[in-house]
Design a protein that fits this description.
Blueprint: H1 6-23, E1 42-46, E2 60-62, H2 63-71, E3 75-79, H3 85-92, E4 97-100, H4 111-128, E5 135-138, H5 140-150, E6 156-165, E7 168-169, H6 177-180, H7 184-192, E8 196-203, H8 206-211, H9 213-218, E9 219-226, E10 231-238, E11 243-246, H10 252-255, H11 266-283, H12 293-299, E12 307-308, E13 317-320
Parallel strand pairs: 1-3, 1-4, 4-5, 5-11
Antiparallel strand pairs: 2-13, 6-8, 7-9, 9-10, 10-11, 12-13
Helix pairs in contact: 1-7, 2-11, 3-4, 4-5
This protein binds 2-acetamido-2-deoxy-beta-D-glucopyranose (2 copies).
């Protein structure tokens, strides 16, 4: 994987910004003024099984993912596990994007994996009809995306279960959808300071990525990292679909406090916001909506109360279903 020095990063990004400004005001990052826009985007967040659930509950969502999406102007609905294909299709046609969170469920045989596959397939099929439906995977969700795309579990053990790292940007990051709108100072900070929190025992190594034709054809690697032994893919976006993934946790910097290695500096918190803003802007390009205002109200996360779990889990608050 071609990685480049911080000096090259800054130089390249500065040039790119100048180019963007010179092209035209309609080319400013994030949202072209000529494009139709949905200012009421709703993101579905996938719930998952867990060994530690209160009696009578079957799945959970960490509240940080909800706050993360809300911070950039989206509303959220939970996507519960074990629903029928018809129910999931109806939800898909009502919402504007889906987020597969991190966690510890199986990425091949759980309710999380089953629902994830259904939404991924629907998003691919929508794109082929010209409908833009963004999909985001964080950590476990990132790993699941690589399984959904390649049909195989291609993970390598890494020593990354609780560490903040700086991103090694690839040349492709500069022409990426994801990072194009980021402020130069934030890109410089991401390249040089440990602003991205990693909580994973498994990774997709750069070697595996480069030797898997499905992954290589489908995704562009935007950043890599290393645990000192294995270089792994840490941020990717699909070439032809609005599908994005980070092995790291953008939502934690602003909203999770249970671990000493979660960064909370101003640049770390800006990272949370710019990642959320990018994804919510992707969702603003989708025009799915609920059949009625009543259906929408009944589906929203506001119908549920988060529970304080910071004393007993890695998450400050969780929603249980
Ligand atoms: C979901 O379905 C699986 C497999 O059919 C089953 O083992 C599990 O108990 C179900 N979970 C819930 C929450 O219904
Ligand atoms: C794993 O990484 C941590 C630093 O993040 C280091 O302190 C530790 O020694 C490493 N463990 C192994 C087995 O390499």
């Amino acid at each position: 994987m071609a990685t480049i020095s911080r000096e090259t990063v800054c130089f390249g990004f500065r040039n790119l910004l100048i180019l963007l400004f010179c092209l035209s005001v309609t080319c400013l990052p994030f949202f072209p003024t000529t494009q139709k826009r949905n200012d009421k985007p709703i993101i579905g967040i996938l719930s998952q099984e867990s060994r530690s659930l209160p009696a009578g509950k079957t799945s959970y969502i960490a509240a940080s993912y909800v706050k993360y999406m809300e911070s950039a102007g989206a509303r959220v609905i939970p996507i519960k596990i074990n629903q029928t294909l018809e129910e999931y299709t109806k939800i898909f046609n009502s919402i504007n994007g889906v987020l597969f969170p991190g966690g510890a469920a199986s990425i091949t045989s759980s309710g999380y994996a089953r629902a994830g596959k259904i939404f991924y397939d629907l998003a691919i099929e929508a794109k082929e009809r010209g409908v833009h439906f963004p999909v985001w995977g964080t950590c476990l969700g990132f790993e699941m995306l690589t399984v959904l795309t390649s049909g195989e579990k291609l993970l390598t053990g890494t020593n990354t279960s609780g560490v903040a790292l700086n991103l090694d940007f690839t040349v492709e990051a500069f022409e990426s959808k994801l990072f194009r709108g980021f402020p130069l100072a934030l890109m410089e900070a991401l390249a040089s300071e440990p602003l991205t929190e990693n909580s994973h025992k498994w990774s997709v190594s750069v070697e595996t990525f480069n030797t898997n034709p499905e992954l290589k054809k489908f995704y562009k690697v935007l950043t890599t990292n290393t645990d000192g032994t294995t270089e792994f893919v840490s941020t990717m976006e699909a070439h032809h679909y609005p599908i994005f993934g980070t092995q790291w946790h953008p939502e934690k910097n602003a909203y999770e406090w249970t671990k000493p290695y979660i960064p909370h500096s101003p640049a770390a918190v800006k990272t949370t916001f710019y990642m959320a803003e990018f994804f919510v802007n992707e969702a603003r390009k989708n025009f799915h909506k609920f059949e009625s205002a009543e259906d929408e109200s009944a589906a929203l996360i506001y119908n549920y109360n988060p529970v304080y779990t910071g004393q007993t889990s890695a998450f400050e608050q969780k929603y249980y279903f």
